[in-house]
Amino acid sequence: LPAFGQGRGRSGGTVGGPQGTGPGSAPGQMERDRDLNRDRGHEADRDGNHQRKDALIHQEQQPLKDSQINGGAFRMLEKRTGMTADQLKELYSRSGARNFGQFASAIVVSKNLNLDTQKVLEGLKTNSLGETLKSLGVASDKAKAEIKKANEEIKNADKTS
Question: What is the pTM assigned to this prediction?
Answer without folding.
Answer: 0.64
